[in-house]
Amino acid sequence: MLKKFLIFTFLFLVLFLGFVLLFNEVLSYSFQKTHSPLTEEIAKFYNLNYNSDLTPKQIKELTRGSIDEDTPPRWINHFYDHISNQGWEGNLTSKQWAKAPKEQSAYHQGDRTWQKAIDYYLKGDKNQAYYTLGFILHLIEDLSVPAHTRNDTHALKEIDTDPYEEWASNLPLNYYNLSQALFKQGIKPKQLANLDDYFDELAIYSNRYFFSKDTVPEREEKVFKGYPQGPEIIKIDINYCYGKDENKKEIKLARFDLKDNKCVIGLEDHAIHLDYWNRLAPKAIIYGAGIIDLFHREIEEIKKGERVQPIVYRPPIIQGSLDKTQIITSYLTKLSLGGIKYLTNEGTKHIHLSLNKIKDSIQETLIQFQNLLSQSTNQISSFFEETQKKTDELLSQVRVQINLVNLPQKEDLVLGSKPSFTPTPSSEPKPNSISESKPEFPVLTSEPAPTPDPGPSAERASLPESVPTPESTPTPEPAPSSEPPSSSEPTPSPEEKLTS
Question: pLDDT per residue over 319-343, tens digit each?
Answer without folding.
Answer: 444 455 555 555 556 555 555 555 5
